[in-house]
Amino acid sequence: MDQQAQIMTMEDRTSVQAITRGEHPDPFAFLGSHPVTGGVRIRTFQPGVDSVAVVDAASDEQVTSLTRLHPDGVFAGTVKDADRDFRYRLRISRNGEACTIEDPYRFGAILGDLDLHLLAEGRHEHAYEKLGSNSIEMDGVRGVAFAVWAPNARRVSVVGEFNNWDGRCHVMRLRHGAGIWEIFLPELQQGSLYKYEIIASDGKLLPLKADPFARYCQHPPETASIVYDPPSYHWQDQAWMQSRGACSQRDAPVAIYEVHLGSWRRHPGDNNRYLSYLELAEELPAYAADMGFTHIELLPVTEYPFDGSWGYQPIGLYAPTSRFGTPDEFRHFVESCHAHGLGVLMDWVPAHFPEDAHGLAHFDGTALYEHEDPAKGRHHEWGTLIYNYGRQEVSNFLLSNAKFWADQYHIDGLRVDAVASMLYLDYNREAGEWSPNEYGGNENLEAVDFIKRMNELVYREEKGFFTTAEESTAWPMVSRPTSAGGLGFGYKWNMGWMHDTLTYIKRDPVHRRHNHNDLTFGLVYAFSENFILPLSHDEVVHGKGSLINKMPGDRWQKFANLRVYFGFMYGHPGKKLLFMGGEFAQEREWNHDYSLDWHLLDDPLHAGVHKLIRDLNRLYRDCPSLHQLDCEPEGFQWIDGGDAENSVLSFLRRGRSNDDCTVIVCNFTPVVRSAYRVGVPFAGTYHERINTDGREYGGSGVSNGSAIESVPVPAHGHSHSLTLTLPPLAAVIFACPGQHLTSGEAHEEH
């Protein structure tokens, strides 16, 4: 130690002690290569190493041995006649085995001034290319660049198996202006596990944190991030990406199949395991396409720790969950959907995040991503924290994430969860539990601004991409452009329609005449937004029962009620959404731990509902009058919306062409109604397109035949009418004379 003491200045001694304790305020100022008189001084910290030598990177020749300055592994030495650009490597020996490595502390800064400026201002739309772990080349050496925002931390280190999870080894450089810590780890392998070890400003060592920008995470309950930056995925969906916009327009048929990947189908013979992304790619897109759906909507697939949250409490917003495979395997799943003509929508959760110790909560020892004030920063009912949308770096984290899924995974749209909880400061709060905004109102102005910016960004940058709001209040203009004062979403879930119509259909038919308004009220506001009619997962959980078990009556009536309800839904203005299992009348309430009950398709009644949904989807797609003006008042006209006594609704759906028209009549009682007159706009032959009481669907087979002629008897304001026999608990859909048919539908008719 006397010799060591002679070669260390007082400043060195203090720095060495700080390095060994992981407390040096700027390790890059001490470690690495630094010019001295007559050469460069090289210092390194290598715990558990016997010796260290310096090797000329160009010649691979040893130029000097380093002296141990501290028993814990601080080594130093001078390379004479070398300049600051001298490229070197370190040859280390441990237990008699030697290897040559790069020194992370010889490399310069990673982030440029423009990146730092944009990140600090919250205007870096591609933040994911700079933060997190990214493979880069520095000074001719391949490796992984790490960067993380933690402005209030005293120290941040990258830890992993590569350094025995020792936070002293790879302490990061702080870029003070932006509060971002960075380091380049040369030659680090893909697949390496890592986390961030953070010491808060008060000196407290925090629980190890996962990377907020991690591209890949360990399978829960393990919580490490994984370096994953493979060569570019070779996408084969260029044709889809160029044309996808036409599939989501207001005049397009949009029929969404909502899916929880973990329980759509499982392997019962293999310990009830999940299907992988690759297995799902083989089965799910083909099934959904055959059923006539246009889009698949995935419950959240961003990494989440707790299976029971279904993904709605995410930890890794930049990582597809590892439950089903790798990120590239998820890309393959998306590509398979596109190959089958299906758009892929993703449930996105910017409204809140969980408090798991390895996540964003108090990330650097302070309320960094969340509000410090629980009145603004916490949802008590969910036990989750609320993003601080007014903080530029936080909003940029979320905005960049929305773009990330479109850019990196070719996702076609986002369904934004719990928008109402973002919009209102008093959401689910009693008086005294919230503070008004600067104008005295209950609107969360920062969240409103964030939502508008998000929608403006994705609609500007991502061709054919669209967003949908799950918004359960009467907030105005949710699906109107921001330029017109709206929030900028493409669509909004029609929660009012869902609630009212389910309330109606659950009633015994004998009482329905007293509640007729539950069916008709939705038409009062049906065109105030671009609506999607949702029968989602939320309606078949938490004791609510499955759709089929909401229906009243005996077994036959339950199925008939469900069929007429589906017929009404597909005739009603608005795009369609159905949660998996509903298409074949799943009887059990949905349970995320089990597969759907596919064996039910062996039962004729379940198989009948399955066929009905397939036929309704195809009719909805083939008939412009059923989708072209879904969001326009010109696309709907009552024939008779007031026949409460008979619990019958009749109405027209219209396309842009004057003679493109469909007649829908729904009988919500189990009574066959004969000689029921319905006014129609044209004389001629009306072809029956769907009768939900058809025997092929499990019905009783009461029918008007495949076609019926109008008669010149005025009714309901029309000069002609049809005299119908209305099947029990059934919807019948007729094509008007001259109705436009697609080539596929015309071929079937021929």
From TrEMBL:
Signal peptide: none
Gene3D superfamilies for this protein: Glycosidases, Golgi alpha-mannosidase II, Immunoglobulins
Location of the Glycosyl hydrolase family 13 catalytic domain: 258-606
Residues in coiled coil: none
A Pfam family that the UniProt record links to this protein: Alpha-amylase
GO biological process: glycogen biosynthetic process
Biochemical pathway: Glycan biosynthesis; glycogen biosynthesis
Reactions that this protein is recorded to catalyse: Transfers a segment of a (1->4)-alpha-D-glucan chain to a primary hydroxy group in a similar glucan chain
One term under GO cellular component: cytosol
Subunit description: Monomer.
Function, as annotated: Catalyzes the formation of the alpha-1,6-glucosidic linkages in glycogen by scission of a 1,4-alpha-linked oligosaccharide from growing alpha-1,4-glucan chains and the subsequent attachment of the oligosaccharide to the alpha-1,6 position.
Assigned protein family: Belongs to the glycosyl hydrolase 13 family. GlgB subfamily.
HAMAP family the UniProt entry points to: GlgB
Protein name from the UniProt record: 1,4-alpha-glucan branching enzyme GlgB
Gene this chain is encoded by: glgB
